[in-house]
Design brief:
The chain is of the alpha/beta class and 221 residues long. It has helices at 44-49, 77-87, 100-111, 131-140, 150-154, 157-162, 164-174, 193-196, 216-220, and strands spanning 7-9, 13-19, 26-30, 53-57, 66-67, 93-98, 116-122, 203-206. Strands 1, 2, 3, 4, 5, 6, 7 and 8 form an eight-stranded mixed beta sheet that branches.
Length: 221
Amino acid sequence: ILPPVPYLQTADAEIYYNDDSRSGPVIVLMHGAAGNSDCWIQQLPVFQDAGFRVIIYDLRGFGRTRSAPGQDASGSMAADLHDLAQGLGLPRFSLVAQAYGGFGALEFAVDEPESLDALVVSTSFGGLTDPEYTALRSRHVPADLNSRPVEERELGATYRATNPEGVRKFLEMEAGSYRGDGSRQSLRQPMTLERVATIRVPTLIIAADEDLYAPPPVMRA
């Protein structure tokens, strides 16, 4: 008999999560728009071996998280993370997010810094809307990016060439992971450089030279 799938009940969603419930400092991992929380399968044992309690979960509209009808895009990622942290009774934790998940992670760090020990944002332009930032990003991101195959958009050329099995597993995870109607949760407020500048949580920003959505000059800005 399979154990019951763990869900956190909110007002309009059941958020799927996996908590290894170990003792030790807590890390929460937020996935991007490609795939779901299964994307962290290679990171989990590394963090666990280092003594961390690791929590992964599926964002609203993705994977095993279930929303009430028409509610896949309601609320915000930061609000759902707040509910998850409260529901699990988490102490201060480190938040690690990539790509689309980084949008919500930045907002959570702005709004609830008292909940965090540290923030890591990897390969995410953060949903920033400042005109000068948007113009900078447009100079570095291919104009046809969104029309390219998902594996070309999301996986580096070197990885695709050297790890065909990894590409296969990625495509398997990605297929059918997003179940929404094309819309996704928005931020509580537009994210701006001014808002980011208020973050006082120790923060690490990670860029990757083959990332097409948020290449190093964009991440540096």
